[in-house]
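F.,

This is the one I mentioned.
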């Protein structure tokens, strides 16, 4: 039981670390997204991640063995995240306001908890459900800063709802697929991102006649190069590797409850590095996120820490 408790604790710490990296990613995205298209950024961050992971696999630093194995589970994970999630989120954000997209995306933990209860029969306790709602409310308040404007774009809402479902489906699928390790899941996700996002980016740049600019962008634009190095290595490789590992140890619901930490990190980073404001409402929201996340992980079923 002590060994299992230690494993759970390590899983929680790794999950928190992954959310810190995801939170920092918003800072780097904001630094370069105005200068490049969404798919150019997604393409290059996946290319960097793919090169890094392939090098680690070739050097024997990562245990990835996909030969003569049924890859359908990995393809399903990769379809949900990053392919469908990023595409649907991008389309949703473009059709709605920033506050609306922030509110809806912040509700992903609720979707994950519902999916986990329905498909994995991992039903939360009453206290866990309440704490999950608390942390989601906190994440929503952080995202909108107390100011919500409505676009009324139903198609945009639909895209964001589908993106939320895609992220929830990724979490429970990653938890359910146990025949592949975290490195193999992450490598499949990175590879799918390279194929899909680079394909779209190449089409975009061929159409606009900027193919050479796309190819040389990381080498000619220092800020863009730094951004994709962090996003590719820090997020697509390390953060997703940690997320896949954490899901396998603590489960999709408990890991989802920690997603609000990414909002806190993004908020703090925006204050210190981008000159954004930090309101009293957001301080209160930060407390809600932390209390809710602690509650979800503390008020699990009694046999949670006895499993394994």
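My design for it:
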């Amino acid at each position: 039981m002590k060994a299992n408790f230690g494993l759970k604790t390590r899983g929680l710490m790794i999950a928190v670390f992954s959310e810190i990296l995801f939170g920092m990613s918003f800072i780097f995205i904001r630094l370069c997204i105005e200068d490049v298209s969404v798919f150019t950024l997604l393409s290059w961050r996946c290319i960097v991640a793919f090169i890094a992971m392939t090098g680690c696999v070739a050097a024997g630093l990562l245990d990835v063995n996909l030969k003569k194995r049924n890859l359908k589970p990995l393809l399903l994970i990769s379809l949900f995240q990053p392919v469908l999630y990023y595409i649907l989120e991008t389309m949703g954000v473009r059709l709605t306001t920033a506050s609306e997209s922030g509110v809806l995306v912040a509700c992903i933990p609720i979707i994950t908890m519902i999916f986990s209860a329905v498909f994995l029969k991992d039903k939360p306790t009453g206290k866990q459900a309440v704490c999950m709602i608390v942390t989601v409310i906190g994440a929503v308040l952080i995202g909108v800063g107390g100011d919500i404007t409505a676009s009324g774009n139903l198609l945009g809402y639909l895209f964001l709802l589908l993106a939320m479902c895609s992220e929830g489906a990724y979490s429970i699928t990653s938890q359910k697929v146990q025949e592949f390790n975290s490195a193999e899941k992450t490598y499949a996700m990175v590879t799918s991102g390279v194929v899909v996002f680079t394909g779209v980016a190449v089409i975009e740049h061929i159409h606009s006649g900027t193919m050479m600019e796309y190819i040389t962008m990381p080498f000619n634009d220092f800020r863009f190069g730094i951004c994709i190095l962090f996003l590719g290595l820090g997020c697509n490789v390390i953060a997703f590797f940690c997320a896949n590992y954490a899901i396998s140890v603590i489960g999709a619901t408990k890991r989802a409850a920690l997603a609000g930490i990414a909002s806190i990190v993004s908020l703090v980073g925006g204050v210190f590095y981008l000159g954004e404001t930090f309101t009293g409402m957001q301080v209160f929201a930060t407390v809600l996120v932390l209390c809710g996340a602690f509650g979800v992980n503390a008020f699990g079923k009694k046999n949670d820490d006895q499993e394994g």
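Residues 2-32 form the longest helix (31 residues).

Talk soon.
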